[in-house]
Amino acid sequence: MAETHAAELAARLDRLPSNRFVWRLVTLISLGACFELYDLFLTAYIIPGLAKDGMFTPESLGAFSMLAPLKVAGPGTFVFALFAGLWVGTLAFGWVADSYGRRTIFTFSLIWYSVCTFIMAFQSSGFGIDLWRFIAGIGIGVELVTIDTYISELVPRAERGRAFAFNQFVAFCAVPVVAFLAWILGVEHWRWVVVIGSIGALFIWWLRLGLPESPRWLARHGRLAEAETIVAGIEAQASAELGTLPPPGAPVAEEGEASFAEIFQPPYGKRAIVLSIFNFFQTFGYYGFAAWVPTLLIAKGIHVTTSLEYAFIIAIANPVGPLLGTFIADKMERKWQIVCAAICIGVFGLLFAHMNGTVTLIVLGVIITLSNNWLSYSFHNYQAEVFPTRIRSRAVGFVYSWSRLSAALSGLAIGIFLGIGGVNAVFGFIAFAMAVVVVVIGGFGPATKGLALEAIANG
User: Fold this and answer.
1) For 2-244+259-457, which CATH superfamily applies?
2) Rounded to two decimals, what is the model's pTM?
């Protein structure tokens, strides 16, 4: 009986036309994601300041200097600490939103990140910086998984693609902001860049207090009266704006019991393997460029100060990609969007490696950034769609954790290839990673466009 009622509630949500109330909810969630992206991308822009303050000497790093035999030294420890924290957050704590609710964990993880990042800004040693970066990363990892889960369950099926593209548009607005602050404030004021992000996140936390819990999650946990109240409220808002609503489609009930083991059972086992491989390799392309833009420009002979200016210009493109994506996000099959974006990253990355003119480098940098954004909003949507409500958060956390692991290794990998063959070797490696993405998703990923979450879940 509960499963039938849950299916009916989901069908009522899915039949809703585009309305301001649902998009307001997506906007509030996205504002929180904005500061997650701010924190993720500040790495590339504050590392020069950290290095100038002597944070990366063996004496300052303390226990983190033990990573040197693994070729993770100096700035690499800061990158490693963040993504190690993200890996722990996504893998070890991805389940918490399935157990305690999307809204609860969404709010808690943002507070976690804000407090830990604020503490990090006042550390006086590389060890303290890296330790609090790791702890903050755990909260960010949980937040990123919860955001994907939350949006997929609130938005009608015909608009999920646009909602994820819009979410990424809002979130990526943070990237040019952090790049601009780092450029204007200068390398010596890196602490202010960190503090601004942590304080802003607390403000967004306050704005999001009015968000409802996911009705799908409530219904799955037997809280049918609460789920009914939320769905009826959303319908009332949509009806007041649009008039008579279309009738719900045929309800589709999810089948199965929630457990971590279910991730590896048909039909989810194949999906988990495909997305785990995808996530491991996509990160080398994504962060291999985004987190290393200033360094790659310096390697091509551009002065450090000028490289930050160029990196800021390139960073401005970050919100543009998802904004453009809103026009095709629900018109083109998700898996093929991922494939096309990966091809663009590989091809234009190789062109970037072989060019030297200032204008050409900036233009190619912008194109690679737009391609990265296309890949990002598409796969965040995709991996949240292919698992059922009962295990969505933990399954997304599991497959996404492989990208956090590879991101922790990306600093090592990019550094090695940069040392072996310069920028050409770096983008040769990125092109290989994107080729794996194309084969795995194009060859084995399921189709999801326009389908109800429950229909996708049932295979």
Assistant:
1) MFS general substrate transporter like domains (1.20.1250.20)
2) 0.88
